Task: structure prediction
Amino acid sequence: MGYLKETGLGESFQPFSVFREYFGFVPNLFLAQTLLPRVIAAESALATAILFERRCLPQVLKERMLLALAAACGSTYSVGLGSQMLNLLGASDSKAELSSRDALLAAFTVKLATRSSSMSREDIERTAAGGWTNESLLEAVLLAGLGNFLCTLSVGLGAEPDFAAPPHLGTATSLDIGSPERESFGPYLYAKEMPSDFAPFSFLRDNFGFVPNLFQIQALCPAAVVAEVEAMRLILLTDDVLKRKQKERILLAVSGSNQNTYCVAVYAEILTLSGVSAEESYKIAADHWQAGLSELDNVLLDFAVKLSARPEEFSLEDVESLRRQGLSDEQILEAVAVTALTQFLNTVQQGIGAVPDFAPRHSFHLDTGNKANLSYPDSRPNQRDEPPDPDAELVRKAQAGDLHAFEVLVERHSKRIYRTLVGLLGSPEEARDGMQDTFLKAFQHLAGFQGRSKFSTWLLTIANNAGLQRLRERRPMESLDDDGPEGEEGFRPRQVRAWTDDPEQLCAQAEVRSLVENCLKKLPSKYRVVVLLRDFEQLSAEDAAEALGLQVPALKSRLLRGRLMLREALAPYFAKSPTGVGA
Amino acid sequence: MITCADFMAELGNYLDEGVADEVRMQLENHLAHCQTCQVIVDSTRKTVRIVTDSGCFDLPEAVLKPITAEIMAKIRGKQG
Result:
């Protein structure tokens, strides 16, 4: 018996049949989770896609890699199981049996699983130099994620070993690449394009508003993406045991503790759909005790962070601390599963080097206590006393099912949403489609809008995500920030002739409008959208930054650059000619 | 005495009136002597004004109405 209660699921429970087929029995790790069959189903799907099914890597090598990883993580349970599996496959569990090429891949997997934040492109390149293909490397990354997932589960559940770990495998492995730690930008692997109707991507678009790069890069292994999205659906996006909000906080806190800027940034952005401000999300990731949560929520996050960051200290007492808060065994099991899933996602992201879908609003640093932390401001600079949201009453009615109220909101905000999308996409036709996406998505998530930001800002955030998604589909795998350096650096005004006093009077209003539109279309989208939100829509820097997922200084920097570029484009029309008359 | 590069670094905040009084005085001292920066400030202000007043990317009601109707029809369809 592990830490939690168990129950019988019957011989016909399909995931157990899958485990029996591979292992020859149902490991205790899964028997310890019978309180929540859907969680076992999710794990079965992940294990099938990543471990059980044959892809590029031989089965024996995969098991050896998992064993090395389990030993490095100090997971007695996984070492015992892995060693037994190798025996079943007729292979030795000795590291000496690995060829140098296999050892290179195993070392890569171990480093990824144990020191993922120090992974760099160099690690991938060094391993690839051993003759491993992109597909094999992706499989190794997924295995590292799965290994971490299983180790976290076994520690959190206190799963009783199915087999004793052989004495020679009881300590951490010495396998290590030992590359210097350095900053490196991904993605490290190339991706192939998936059809737009690929079901997991449609699911992610429907639920998150976009397909995070993390999943797009894994398109080389569609079965893994299917299983991961299914695992997220079954473990994270449910609301019947732990509340979805509690689980999302676990994801943020564990990712923060792992210093995984990518997962924090993406999930903070996703949570804005529910009206949770990015600032609140970052506080949870940085130090949940400072985020104003209830004691129960704080203890729950302590539990998850300890399980992921200090598994060697984890014990039954941690489980009891949650029971004392009134949590049921089902809820504790789900907390363990969400922590394990976060470990999986963090590990895979570090392995493939998925680039941020959104500029992270805050970066990670180690404080003097050597504790992983995020830095965040206590409050936004220049934060004002917010007037009441003028849309609040209509939103309340729409949330209560009044479609007419929602229609009024659509009419009230459609022009601004359209203009924002033109700003991002540069195309009026695409902007109209994006506008539909935005309002349909807003309606779908309206019940979750909690009014922590203004409705108009929330709507703009959805529009921004919808626009970014369309841009990504247009130019997959390119960073949206590839338009060169920001700010005034690297951009020097060349047109320095004085302008006429009343440039607008030089031509008719319609001509000015057409001229401005044409010049704006020539700007890179990241500048265009900022100029439109600030100078046309008159949004404050803080609101525009929140809607676009930027920090205020970054927004100001883009605004200046955009204004100067636009000035440059308009100058030939409005500058005085050398004779003193408008050109 | 600040340089043109210093001035450009503060231009965004200066245009949005987001600089401290002391910095603003330094910037305006520079402006009083630098015609190039004067032109850039003046023309960038005019650029902002032109964009603000341009009515750019406006959706005429005649175009907007059918789009709004389509959105609401899809929502009602999903509800039904």
About this structure: The CA atoms of residues 10 and 54 of chain B lie 26 Å apart. Chain B has a mean pLDDT of 89.
